[in-house]
Each structure stands twice: as structure tokens, then as C-alpha cells.
Amino acid sequence: MSTTTFWPQVRRIALPAVVSVVAVVGSMGSSNNQPDRRHADWLLVVLVLIGSVSLYWLKTHPVPVLWATAASTLVYMLREYGYGPVIFAFVIAVFAAIRAGHRSAGWTAIAALYTGHVLGRFVLGINDQNVYQILLVGTCFLVLGFAAELFRAHRDRVAAANKTRQEAELRRAGEERLRIAQELHDVVAHHISLINVQASTALHLVDRKPEQAGPALSAIKDASKEALVELRSIVGILRQTDESAPRQPVAGLERLEHLITGTSRAGLEVHTIVHGDPRPLPTGLDRAAFRIIQESLTNIVRHAKATAATVRIQYGEESLVLQVDDDGESLAAAPREGNGIIGMRERATALGGTLTASRTPTGGLRVVAQLPMEPHSA
Fold this sequence. Notes:
Layout lengths: L2 H30 L9 H12 L8 H17 L8 H13 L3 H21 L7 H78 L4 H27 L16 H9 L4 E7 L7 H21 L4 E8 L3 E8 L12 H12 L3 E6 L5 E8 L6
Parallel strand pairs: 1-2
Antiparallel strand pairs: 2-3, 3-5, 4-5
Helix pairs in contact: 1-2, 2-3, 3-4, 3-5, 4-5, 4-6, 5-6, 6-7, 6-9, 9-10
């Protein structure tokens, strides 16, 4: 028998074994020490063991065990054996049944045992109890039922709290995975697009004007190096180890000039216009603004036949407005929304903002994002 099955089996046997020893010894002692009660005999031992040993099947068959303990306890009481721990098995069975959701069976067994005790003594002519004692026994049975209900309610509250906590952890993990997926998409798409454009330029010049292919190859080297650094930084977050902090700073508007310089090497002339007073932004807002601008420029490099783009940043009191225009041409009235625009809109929506993509009067693409200064989950 393996360890995984050995200890659960030991725990399953331990409960009926301990209850059997305590109930048999205690019941025999109480019967022999109470002169007005019937002395212990072999039937006492059998009745006590029926209730105690049946606890072995308590986890798999709680209702049959409940009725077995109720029947053996009732016969024990009607035989007028001494008051003692014979009731332990029934109490445990009631708690287990109600906790498992068999509330009606638990209360029915309590009522049946009490009614059988009162009526059985009357039928058998055992009239040694007055009304006060009968009510006292009934009160004890009610306390048993309510105690089992309180125990069940407590377990349900604990289980519900654990479930809520697990769902919250799974939701946070899912949101974090989505954020990291967006980061990976933005980093890879941007740098691979620059590398692709520069590689095409280098292939075009290597035979005709080899002396001019150097800047393109240099741009490829810089873009690939920066992509590796950013990917290493993002993967470092996933590892969650005690490694040294990433050397690359968290992507934010402070790196906008570096982003524009790299994009310009791909042949796209980028102009930046800032309105308002630039100031430090919350980390989530700063990162989202940078990624939206980065993805917009990536889309222009990859899909638009444009030679220039304009990035406008407006710092307002309540919101940050980003606008990216290009001078490309398109016959379509509305831009086709691919993964890039959808990803940018998801970033803006996650902060409680909005993002729109439309055509400029000259046919180029215009992306406008309005992000609140106090980001919140939409």
C-alpha cells in the first residue's frame, strides 16, 4: 500500500476505533456504577459497537450510518443501560450528515430518536421520567441539531471565502497573462517590423550601393538588441525569482525619443508635438501610452505607404490624449481593424479610456486615445 492511500486509511480506521474503545469502556462503567440502571452485558457491547464501528463508512455513506447509530442508541436507551458515551457515535453521525448537505435526514434522525425514546418508554411502561426531564432531553436534541447547523454554516462560509479567493487569484493571473501577452506582442511586432524594413533596404543596396547598406545593418543590430533586452525583462517577470532587476527601464513616455529614433531608421520620419505641461504619470498609464504610440508606429511601418507620421501628446487636467497621424493613402473609408488596433483599444479600455481609429482627410490613418489621469478598471 502506497503512502498516499495508507494514511487516509489509518485516519478512517482511527475514528471508529477510538470511539469504540471510549464508548464500550465508558458505557460498561456507567452501567455498573448506576444501581438503578441495567448492568452491562453482551448486548450492551453489541449495541455500542454497532454505532461506533459504522463510523468507518461515515464519509461514503453518511445517511445509512446516521440511521444505524440512531437505531443502536435508541435500543440502548430503551434497555435502560447506564447513561454514558454511547451517544457519541450518534452525535458524530449527525454532524457529518448535516455538514454533507443531508439536513433533512439529520433532523429526521434527531426527531425519530427523541420520539422513539419518549413513546418507547411509555409503551414499555417505563415511567421514571417526569415532564421536566422529557423537555430537558428534547432541548438537548435541539441544541445538537442547531450546533450541527452552525458547524455546517461555518464550513460553507469558509468554503465560499476560499472559492472567492481562488477565483480572484485566477482572475488576477488571467489579467496579468493578458498584460504580458500584450507586452510581448508590442515588443516583438515593433522590433521585427523595423528589422524587416531595414533588411529589405539592406538587400536592395548590398549589390547596387554596398557602401550605403551599413546604416541599415546597424539599425538591424540595434533593433534586435533592444528586442532581446525587452524580452529578457518581460520573461524575468514570469520567472519570479531573486534575480537582479532588469537593466532596461519599464517602457514609458520617457523612452519615446528612443522609440522615435529607432522608427526613423526604418525610413519613417516622425514628428512629436507636446501640448500642456509634461509630468510624471502613473505606471500603468505611462506604460499604456508608450505601447499605444509604439503599436501605432509599428502599424504605419508595416501596413501604411507613408513617409511621415506625427505624434501629438496632450497633457490635460483629467486625461492624457494621444494622437498619431500618418501621410499614407488609402481608398478605404474606414481602416481595417487588425490585432494591433484591437490590442490598443483593449489597453485604453482597461484604464477606463477610449481609442478610435479613422481616416484623415488625406487618406492616412489617425489613432486617437483618451486615457484618464486616474486609471481604473473599466
